[in-house]
Design brief:
This protein is mainly alpha-helical and 67 residues long. Helices cover 48% and strands 9% of the residues. The chain contains two helices and two strands; from the N terminus they run ααββ. A two-stranded antiparallel ribbon has the order 1-2. Strand 1 and strand 2 form a beta hairpin. The model has no long low-confidence stretch (mean pLDDT 90).
Length: 67
């Protein structure tokens, strides 16, 4: 399921226009992203838990010259 399909599902449930449904979905994603940028964890019961984790950098090689 992508963002467009989710907006269509919201449109089917709530009615209104497709533009309003897209605004609702965009608002939801904006709220989740904003919270994650602040370092908070987002937990939506029955859907999932979103969090930001720090990962160590890794060394990658260039496959062409073998470096």
């Amino acid at each position: 399921m992508n963002k467009q399909a989710l907006a269509e599902l919201v449109h089917g449930k709530l009615g209104g226009t497709k533009v309003q449904a897209e605004e609702v979905v965009d608002g939801l994603f904006d709220a989740i992203i904003s919270s994650l940028k602040k370092g908070n964890e987002v937990s939506i019961a029955g859907f999932g838990i979103f969090s930001v984790k720090q990962r160590a950098a890794r060394m990658a090689g260039n496959p062409k010259p073998g470096e």
